[in-house]
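Hi, here's the filled form for the chain we discussed.

Project: internal
Contact: R.S.
Residues: 330
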Amino acid sequence: MTAPSARSTIETAIDLQEVAGSTSRAAGSIIETLDSIAFSLGSMRLSLWDAAVGMSLILIVITAAWSTSKVCGTLLRRATRLDETQRVLAHKITTMLIWGIAFFIGIDLLGIDLTALAVFSGAFGLAIGFGLQKTFGNLIAGVILLMDRSIKPGDVISVADQAGNESFGQIRKIGIRAISVVTRDKTEYLIPNETLMINQVVNWSYSSRDVRVKVPVSVAYGTDMDLAEQLMAQAAQDNPRILGAPAPVVLMMGFGDNAIDFEIRFWIDDPEDGLGSVRSDVLKRVWKLFKEHDIVVPFPQRDINLRKSEQLDRLIDALDRHRDNSSKSS
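And the returned structure, exactly as it came back:
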């Protein structure tokens, strides 16, 4: 009466129908009504009641897998012996195992005989392979990134938008398909895991969170160089974000067209708070100290030399005649 591929589900539906009928006449009547609505496909008969039982089994399996995954994630977050990267990696592997087991349990409960799909397995597998190629690629790339610890939650990386403007962002989460990166302006980028595998990535906190920052400063010719260097070093030392060891240094970089060029170099250990803000604070402090000690930051200057030419001489003569005529008329 029924095909072997759906036998387990239908047997379960029949058992539930008998139990419900013996327990409640009303429930048995409803089930009989649902079972009477059916269609046949070859030797297989599938009723509305069979479909309802099958959907219920699928829902139970999915709910159990989801709940188990959540419980495992909670337990792993409480595992103090694992760092953040190890917890994320263990959660990913555990989740894949749980859903894989849930898939085969669901197949068994529904009584689906996979050998019956042998005719369609080639075309079906090819379609799935092409359709989920990027998804599986991103999944495997995420696992590899976590295993070699090159990218992990909390790292600060450089993120470029479509216009090519680079900004700094902190990795918030490594998902199945992509990582979530939050920048200083609260913009959240979703970058595919596979992109991080094949493209160059600047990880500012890969082996160390210490980042060196360079701030260029120019002073006018004739300035007391020793005093200027002392004030620039003081401006860096006064900033609480700047590390005391290694200490900030001030280097003379060269003689420019309009000024003497210096560079303040210092280290910070919180790049996720931004580099532009610490540069701005140092420059503001330098400006204030320079004003207190009468050190000038020069404006650009240009010397213009006019070469003697016949056209220029005629222009000067015309201007002289115009000036003489104007003075005579007045």
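Let me know if anything looks off before we file it.
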